[in-house]
């Protein structure tokens, strides 16, 4: 199966779709290693960089490289235009000087990603191989499952980019009448030359890189159930990761490349104990160790555009893998097989967590760095209940409805986060005592659902709110940049049309509130994500 290694996932995940350990820390930069048995999964997936988007005439060659047709040149316009405001039909101009000067940056890349901001041409390849096995054993009062297997992941990437700039060389390029024209008229053939604009290459020495990763893993796990009362699951995963990212200069082939990566082995244990002390209640305790490895582009000094902050990010070749120890304790009570109440406590201890920080003296340029350590802990409350009891409430008795088919869900997590920084390495950061970058102090989810008695249709209304969190760490006395609390309302509907056919409707971000970033008491960026509608007709033969 051909897998895009940059498959996009929503930055705002439904907390009900993740395990309690994952819900404990929505900012955990941990990636799921190639699949292993559910009970022994050693890491949780985060929102990974957005996929390159819809491809134009793409295919996979025999060497498994991605080939895309129709290369094109994309121009970026910067400068100021006297007496002319940006319009929907003209490029947005950013004022970078007080004099009338224009620079057009042209980037030659593939046309396979017309909807994303200009960036490098990416050729990605990923292959996953896995072998798994399970041996079940039955005893008089117990069962035991022995799981084992091995996996291998191979990833390769080539990122290439060439940039060109039109700069002012003569009087025509400084003529206010010319500068007030639309971009296609400014760069007409009459204005190109020694008396007007000239084209020159502006490719940076860090704009191109190639990378590879070879990840080999073996796992072994035991899952036993004793007298339908005690369930014990223990396991371990042994990984060897060989990863390298090489950044090189196109303009100076003799310049030494910047090589980053690691060649390490790790053992990742996991254990879980469940005590079902009654028919309706049980107590769970778990421990696991996970890893958070930097992505290819995070290890290369090649700049890329952060799609959320809309600023350039420069990778850090000195990044190291972060280690995470996860502790979870949870009490659960079941009203019925589909109704439950649970309350839990969690603790996550980070070693070398990866954070996004501002580069000193760079304006809004961001980079990534390892902190010394961090700790996240808190509580989580989760409840799901049917609404048949509403029919007995005063005022509802005369409202005829299938209340038994309605349900509500509520999830709330309160997280306390703290980070430890090296006073010498992080002396340029403004706040040495603060929460982890990206960690919200609370996350709340509400769900209202209805399912037809015969199961032919299902509707769900979902509301999510996440507390304000640090989007980028402030440096040189500048305050941290915060992403303010965001509220999102979604709706999902499914209806069975026939035995094998179903219709699905998804409405996302119905309220469409503003996404706002602040620094101190100033708003640095504000925009709206927009609403989304998705219709699906599905055929699933039984």
Would you write up a description of this structure?
There is one protein chain. The chain has helices at residues 20-23, 176-179, 183-186; strands at 58-60, 66-68, 71-79, 102-110, 121-138, 142-160, 162-168, 197-201, 208-226, 230-248, 258-275, 281-292, 303-305, 312-314, 322-336, 339-351, 354-358, 366-370, 373-386, 406-420, 442-451, 457-466, 469-472, 481-483, 486-496, 501-508, 514-519, 522-528, 532-539. By secondary structure, the chain is mostly beta strands. Among the domains are: 71-84 and 91-110 and 162-202, no CATH class; 324-542, Maltoporin, Chain A (Beta Barrel), CATH 2.40.170.20. The longest helix is centred in the N-terminal third of the chain and has 4 residues, at 20-23. It is globular.
Features:
single chain, 542 residues, mainly beta, Maltoporin, Chain A, 15-stranded antiparallel beta sheet, four-stranded antiparallel beta sheet, 29 strands, globular, disordered N terminus
């Amino acid at each position: 199966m051909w897998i895009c290694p940059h498959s996009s996932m929503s930055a705002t995940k439904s907390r009900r779709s993740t395990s309690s350990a994952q819900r404990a820390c929505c900012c955990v930069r941990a990636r799921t290693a190639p699949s292993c048995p559910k009970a022994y999964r050693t890491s949780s997936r985060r929102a990974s960089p957005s996929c390159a988007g819809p491809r134009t005439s793409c295919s996979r060659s025999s060497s498994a490289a991605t080939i895309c047709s129709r290369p094109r040149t994309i121009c970026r316009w910067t400068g100021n235009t006297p007496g002319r405001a940006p319009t929907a039909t003209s490029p947005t101009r950013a004022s970078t000087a007080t004099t009338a000067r224009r620079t057009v940056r042209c980037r030659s890349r593939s046309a396979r990603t017309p909807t994303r901001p200009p960036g490098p041409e990416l050729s990605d390849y990923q292959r996953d191989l896995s072998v798994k096995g399970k041996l079940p054993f039955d005893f008089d009062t117990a069962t035991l499952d022995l799981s084992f297997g091995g996996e291998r992941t191979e990833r390769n990437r080539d990122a290439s980019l060439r940039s060109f700039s039109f700069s002012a060389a003569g009087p025509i390029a400084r003529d206010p009448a010319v500068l007030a024209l639309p971009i296609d008229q400014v760069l007409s053939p009459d204005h190109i030359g020694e008396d007007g604009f000239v084209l020159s290459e502006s490719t940076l020495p860090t704009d191109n890189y190639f990378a590879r990763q070879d990840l080999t893993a073996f796992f072994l796990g035991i899952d036993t159930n004793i007298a339908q009362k005690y369930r014990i699951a223990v396991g371990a995963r042994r990984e060897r990761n060989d990863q390298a990212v090489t950044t090189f200069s196109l303009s100076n082939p003799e310049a030494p490349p910047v090589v980053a990566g690691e060649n390490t082995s790790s053992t990742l244990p996991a254990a879980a104990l469940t005590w079902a002390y009654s028919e309706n209640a049980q107590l769970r305790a778990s421990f696991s160790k996970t890893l958070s490895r930097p992505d290819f582009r995070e290890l290369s000094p090649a700049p890329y555009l952060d799609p959320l902050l809309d600023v350039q990010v420069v990778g850090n070749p000195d990044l190291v893998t972060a280690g995470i120890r996860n502790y979870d304790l949870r009490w659960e009570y079941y009203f019925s097989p589909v109704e439950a109440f649970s309350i839990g406590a969690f603790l996550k201890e980070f070693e070398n967590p990866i954070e996004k920080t501002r580069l000193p003296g760079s304006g809004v340029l961001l980079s990534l760095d390892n902190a010394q350590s961090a700790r996240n802990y808190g509580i989580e409350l989760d409840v799901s209940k049917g609404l048949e009891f509403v029919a007995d409430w005063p005022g509802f008795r005369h409202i005829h409805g299938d209340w038994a088919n309605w349900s509500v869900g509520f999830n709330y997590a309160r997280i306390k986060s703290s980070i430890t920084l090296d006073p010498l390495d992080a002396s340029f950061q403004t706040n040495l005592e603060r929460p982890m970058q990206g960690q919200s102090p609370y996350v709340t989810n509400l769900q209202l659902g209805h399912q037809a008695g015969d199961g032919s249709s299902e509707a769900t209304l979902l509301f999510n709110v996440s507390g304000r969190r640090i989007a980028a760490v402030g440096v040189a006395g500048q305050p941290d940049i915060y992403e303010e609390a965001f509220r999102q309302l979604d709706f999902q509907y499914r209806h069975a049309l026939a035995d094998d056919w179903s219709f699905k409707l998804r409405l996302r971000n119905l309220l469409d509130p503003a996404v706002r970033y602040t620094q101190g008491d100033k708003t640095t960026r504000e925009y709206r994500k927009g609403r989304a509608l998705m219709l699906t007709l599905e055929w699933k033969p039984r």
